[in-house]
Design brief:
By secondary structure, the protein is α/β, with parallel strands linked by helices. Helix content is 36%, strand content 19%. The protein is globular, with a radius of gyration of 18 Å. The termini are close together.
């Protein structure tokens, strides 16, 4: 594994509590094959290197674009029954309830992979739809969406904090205390956060903006490596004052 932090430099390396290990996984976007492989790798790593408490953090955007959104949610919902798994909300998860509550949002959702999600639930959305067809499709989707999936999506958190780290989908608004952050920024922010040199209250682990390799900065790390398009799903392992790619 490639280490990011191993010893203090001008600023002490961020740390998590003794006896805790975090596995943080970037944006999955319907790639159930890559997620299943990553979960297996985490299991193997844990078997080789046991720890008192292992926390798996998933940074959101489980659906859209890739072919198997249904299976991704199923895998994560089941994972949470046997592991300490913290599944965070991504901006793409909001599209599902937007569509169920307002079928006219389909035209917007399909531009960002919504049709792939509907197909994964056994639906066959037409390329062009009128108002009636959108409503019927939303009704069909509501029936096709298992209760366990609806419960999973409804229970997603926006952030998770462990030691000196804060995990979030997109990032945070610079200059705003962590306890005053708005959900819209946590799920959608880009340039204001990505270009900031500010030392935030916590070291931020995030996704949302695809990068070729994990982008490590003094105040944040981006681990969205565009899994749906690149076939590369990234997991960073954090323990004590070290962080490495699994």
């Amino acid at each position: 594994m490639r280490r990011f932090f191993s010893r203090p430099s001008s600023r002490s390396a961020p740390r998590i509590p003794e006896g805790v290990r975090v596995y943080a996984v970037g944006d999955v976007h319907g790639r159930a094959d890559l997620l299943a492989q990553m979960l297996s790798r985490i299991d193997i790593h844990l078997a080789q290197y046991p720890v008192s408490r292992a926390i798996e953090v998933f940074l959101g955007d489980y659906v859209d674009r890739g072919p198997d959104s249904n299976q991704v949610i199923d895998l994560l919902a089941k994972r949470g029954r046997t592991r300490e798994a913290m599944c965070l909300k991504g901006n793409h998860e909001t599209y599902i309830f937007d569509f169920l509550n307002n079928p006219t949002s389909l035209d917007h959702w399909r531009q960002f992979g919504g049709y792939e999600t509907l197909l994964s639930y056994g639906l066959k959305p037409p390329i062009r739809t009128d108002t009636f067809e959108r409503r019927e499709l939303a009704r069909s989707f509501a029936k096709a969406l298992p209760g366990t999936h609806r419960e999973f999506l409804s229970g997603l958190k926006t952030t998770f904090t462990c030691g000196d780290y804060l995990f979030v989908h997109a990032g945070i608004k610079p200059g705003v205390p962590l306890d005053l952050q708005q959900e819209e920024d946590l799920l959608w922010i880009r340039d204001d956060f990505l270009l900031s040199e500010e030392n935030f209250e916590k070291y931020i682990v995030h996704g949302h903006t695809p990068v070729r390799e994990p982008d490590v900065r003094h105040n944040r790390i981006n681990i969205d490596t565009g899994a749906y398009a690149t076939g590369k799903l990234t997991c960073v392992v954090i323990e004590k004052g070290e962080a490495s790619v699994l």
